[in-house]
Amino acid sequence: MRPFRTTLALGVLSAGATFLMHAATGGFFYRSLYHSLLIWAMTAVYGLLLCRWAGKNPVSLFFPLLALLLPVFVLPCQPAFWIMCLTVFGWIRSGICFPGNLFKTLAAELMLTLGGGALIAVFSPRTPLSWALGVWMFFLIQSLYFVFFQFIEAPAAFKIAADPFESARTEAEKIIASNPYGK
């Protein structure tokens, strides 16, 4: 449940950052370079978290994030940049951090990443609050990845050890059951 909760927390932080950036730029946020850099930074932070959860080397994010950083300056906040950002987002999650069956990962990314992006586009946010809610909604949808598609084992420190008396009783029952001279 840790990735689920952390994704929700990152969504709240990203929504707050989006609200503050939109309010600070006075409404010119939609087409600004700052918006593109903020989207890139959110993708980079989430990618680092994904690498940590998957036990992957964060250096593996260098090429996808570089490939996403260059269009920030060429395609500032255009739909082409957003689609590229969603594609890199899916590449990082299902291609680098949690690779698996092609059909399963493609279905997951189409439903969650492109679905989340499409929902933001349908609601077409214009105000600082609607942008923040759109970003939060996107991360809410992304958190569902860890509920339906990826099951991460809890670290050994968080696993509950079996009761020693219960373990001893189970072993004693096995011994008694396997005793051919019993009764």
Written description of the protein model:
This protein is an all-alpha fold and 183 residues long. The chain has one domain (2-178). Helix content is 73%, strand content 0%. The chain is elongated, with a radius of gyration of 23 Å. The model has no long low-confidence stretch (mean pLDDT 81).
Q: How much strand?
A: under 5%
Judged by helices, strands and strand pairing, the structural class is mainly alpha
What is the β-strand count?
0
Shape: elongated
Radius of gyration: 23 Å
The end-to-end distance, rounded to whole angstroms, is: 48 Å
Mean pLDDT score? 81
- Number of spatially distinct domains: 1
Order of helices and strands: HHHHHHHH
The number of distinct helices, counting runs of at least 4 residues, comes to: 8
Give the biggest sheet.
none
Report helical residue fraction. Answer: over 70%
Low-pLDDT stretches = none
How would the blueprint of this fold be written?
Elements: H1 2-24, H2 33-54, H3 62-74, H4 79-97, H5 102-123, H6 128-143, H7 145-148, H8 164-178
In short:
The protein has 183 residues and is mainly α.
Main features:
183 residues, mainly alpha, 8 helices, 73% helix, elongated
